[in-house]
Amino acid sequence: METSRSDETRPADPWPGYFADHGHPEARRIGAGVEGVVYGLGAGRVAKVWTVRPPTELTRQVYADIAAHRLPFATPEILDVQEHQGIAVTYERELPGVPMRGDSAHEDYERELPARHKDTLLAVLRALASVPGTDAMRRLTVQGDDRPLWQGHDRFQDALAALVARAAARHGAALAARVPGFAAGVEHTLNALRSLPDAPVTVIHGDLVPPNIHVDTAGRPVAVLDFGFCTTAGDPAFEAAVTAAVCDMYGPHAQEHTAELTRLFAQELGYSPAALTTYQAVYALTTYDLFGLDDSDGHFRWCAGQLRRNRVFGLT
Predict the structure, then answer these.
(1) C-alpha distance across the termini of the chain, in Å
(2) Does the domain at residues 98-314 carry the CATH identifier 3.90.1200.10?
(3) For 85-95, what is each residue's pLDDT tens digit?
(4) Which parts of the chain fold into alpha helices (H)?
């Protein structure tokens, strides 16, 4: 979220001028995400100014691997990569549609989720689960970690277990102060994770919040964007579990919506409820410290709440 400032104190955005100097006089800011700020350039092109780790040829290959499967919706395609004052800028094709809905941090969701939104989520999950995991996807590093997720592992569940252990060691004391039985809960989660059976290895987006799914006027998904936050190859049940949890993170009915979507995805997609619950604990344990380390940060507060309620974590 941007901090509100008066026109007199808000610093001028230098990037429209930069893009104008490079042949895009109509450049305008159109959005911002975890990884950077996006500018519309016209003629079906956008530019992304990366505020976190820059993209690599590996990112480009992952995008190409996904696009090669001709999904029923568009996905990102990097056309060129440049650098300006040490900041990476990618030029990409503009994706169609409008966000399925606003982020729950800024828009309260109604108690009953619209059927069209649930259908859209199911359609996206089914389509992504049809894309096999590739070597490039396995070589990606998820946000907050220091090595490729699959490095040294042959099973997704074992790779995740190692990630959980590293993440808990980073700043686990901050989370333990707000989550009773933290150390035991980590062990419960690791045991549950390692006991999960092998599963197909497919692409995982890892951040299917509603703004990252674009729809047409009929509500059909026409684009999925912002791969990279937790993008990897792995069990498609992980994607479903995370999607159920993050669809509505902050609204007044968030807990009800997570429970409803978890049941829906288990029933419609055939995933084990226990696996979904385990993966939800894993997500909270591996992303809790990415934006802040106390209750002033919404994501940290949300992760702590997820763990306090998670049946696998607490063995309740």
Answers:
(1) 36
(2) yes
(3) 999 999 999 99
(4) 15-21, 57-67, 115-128, 135-138, 156-176, 182-195, 236-246, 254-269, 273-287, 298-309, 311-314
The Cα–Cα gap between 282 and 166 comes to 12
- Which helix (H) or strand (E) covers residue 233, if one does? strand 232-234
CB-side exposure of 91: number of CA atoms within 13 Å? 16
Instruction: Delimit the domains of the chain by residue range.
Output: 15-93, 98-314
Cα Rg for the chain, rounded, in angstroms?
Answer: 19
Instruction: Go through the chain and tell me how many residues it has.
Output: 316
Amino acid letter, 190: L
Q: Are 27 and 47 in contact (CB under 8 A)?
A: yes
Do the domains 15-93 and 98-314 sit in the same CATH topology, yes or no? no
- What distance in Å separates the CA atoms of residue 50 and residue 262, rounded to the nearest whole number? 33
Does domain 15-93 match CATH 3.40.50.1000? Answer: no
Enumerate the β-bridge partners of residue 80. 91
- The whole-angstrom separation of Cα 75 and Cα 66 is 8
Q: Is 264 helix (H, G, I), strand (E, B) or coil?
A: helix
Residue from 40, 44, 42, 17 nearest 29 by CA: 40
For residues 29 and 37, give the distance between their C-alpha atoms in angstroms, rounded to a whole number: 7
Coil/strand/helix, residue 48: strand
> pTM for the full model?
0.93
Q: In the chain, how many H helices and how many E strands? A: 11, 10
| Distance from C-alpha of 222 to C-alpha of 120, rounded to nearest angstrom | 10
Are the C-beta atoms of 44 and 10 separated by less than 8 Å? no
Tokens linked to 173: 């004391």
Of 32, 82, 28, the closest CA to residue 55 belongs to: 82
At 186, the amino acid letter reads V
Q: What is the pLDDT of residues 11-49, one digit of tens each?
A: 799 999 999 999 999 999 998 877 889 999 999 999 999
